[in-house]
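Thread: "does anyone have the structure for this chain?"

Original post by V.I.:
We have the sequence but no experimental structure in hand. Need at least a predicted one for the grant figures.
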Amino acid sequence: MPSDTPPSQPSPADRREFYRITVTLPICLQPESDQAEGTLIQRPVNISGGGIGITLNQVFAVNEILFCTLLLPGQVLFKSYLEVLRVDLIPYPHNTYRLHGRFVRMTSQDRELLIRHIMQFQREHLNKHYSA
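Reply from O.Q.:
Generated one for you, tokens below.
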């Protein structure tokens, strides 16, 4: 029976073991302390079982913990904490940043749920672009 305790955090090398794909999903990122219900906004997200990369018009501090909400296919609401690893300024358009973050405090069940959806995204991508 799987445990509900969060697994240890993946190392930088481990994070690259997770398959990555870029998909457009409704997402909300907000500071961990913000208890208000955030608005989901459709954005391209580079996602893996270890974390996300996303382009935003809002800057967050490195090491800040964010609350991440994603709306996955089938109206599955996925919630996790995200540690900001890096924020890169994108010169154009003005006030645009690329946030790189890793999931933290995630249960093994939540990680498995996310990985199942990522595998489904990959199957759909392959069927769309490489099927005869």
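V.I.: this helps a lot. The chain has a mean pLDDT of 87.
O.Q.: and The CA atoms of residues 5 and 56 lie 31 Å apart.
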